[in-house]
Amino acid sequence: MAENKNSIKGLSGIGKLDRKRLGQVVRDAKGSVSVSDAAKILNVASPDAAKMLSRWAKKGWLSRVYRGVYVPVPLESRSADMPLENAWVIAEKLFSPCYIGGWSAAENWGLTEQIFRKVVVMTTQKPRRSLCVIKGTEFILRMIPEKAMFGLKPIWQGQVKVMLSDPSRTIIDMLGDPALGGGIRTVADMFVNYLKSENKNMELLLKYAKQLGNGAVFKRLGFMLERFAPQEKDAIEQCSTELTKGNTKLDAGLAADRLITHWRLWIPESWSKAK
After folding, report:
1. Domain limits of the chain?
2. Is the dihedral of CA 261, 265, 269, 274 positive or negative?
3. Under 8 Å between Cβ of 126 and 149
4. What's the CATH fold of domain 2-72?
5. pLDDT given for residue 9 in this prediction
6. What 3-state DSSP class applies to 268?
7. How far apart are CA 202 and CA 273, in angstroms?
8. In the 8-state DSSP scheme, what is residue 122?
9. Cα separation of 139 and 151, whole Å?
């Protein structure tokens, strides 16, 4: 009966030593395993570790998710060709130092009810391309300098600690690049939800904006506060004192035909109307 189950799933038997080694690797690697992980855990040379992982993957016990990176195949899975069980863990493995940000973090903090299929990853690595597809999961990659690794919270995914932008940092990142929130309309909705939430912290928001050093953030933040929270007079005033030279679009992806001079911000005609 066991052999029939294995044939359905696509598993092949492995010897006693392989079972022991595989068990040790899966137990110690915590979620995913790379060639270097396996070499260290088993105390073998990297080429030998690579051959083991490849062999176990061919036999259906591991699933290759990226070059030299594998995840265990759950016993209940009928195939090793499976979608990612936890994309955040894989992001941490492949793109570290990094953090989950943008709309992915906004979903976690309850700032939006919209479901986004792609995972936003802010990484200090230089990605080969801005969109990476792994086992059907799409990762949006944005390169940031090491000094921008602040305002983060650790989130445990099983035994793996993944870094996530906190609510205030999430808002600041999306104001810096509205595309990270799905466009300025969606970012505005998330910003309003942030202002209504227990996570609202104007002092921290302004601190992060200054620390990030992106002049466009203060222009968009000041405009948004004036539009949606005019009672935040101190924060609005601070934004106005931090403006950089030059004019910026509210959203680089939208046509903008009206200049709000005191914010040095070009906005679409639809945003000119009173809200």
Report:
1. 2-72, 87-271
2. negative
3. no
4. Arc Repressor Mutant, subunit A (1.10.10)
5. 45
6. coil
7. 26
8. E
9. 21
Distance (Å, rounded) from C-alpha 256 to C-alpha 82? Answer: 44
Place of tokens 């979620």: 31
DSSP 204-221: HHHHHHHHHT-HHHHHHH
pTM, 2 dp:
0.80
Torsions phi, psi for 76 (to 5 deg):
-80, -10
Nearest to 149 by CA among 127, 128, 125: 125
| Closest residue by Cα to residue 224 from 234, 215, 232 | 232
φ/ψ of 255, rounded to 5, equals: -70, 140
In this structure, which amino acid lies at residue 121?
A: V
pLDDT at residue 84, rounded to an integer: 65
Contact assessment for residue 99 and residue 152, using Cβ atoms and an 8 Å cutoff: yes
Give residue for tokens 């200049």: 259
Q: What is the mean pLDDT of each run of 10 residues along the chain (275 residues)?
A: 41 74 81 84 88 83 81 60 73 93 97 94 92 89 97 90 97 97 97 97 97 95 96 97 95 93 95 66
Give the model's pLDDT for residue 14.
Answer: 72
Quickly list DSSP for 127-174: -SSSEEEETTEEEEEEE--GGG--SEEEEEETTEEEEEE-HHHHHHHH
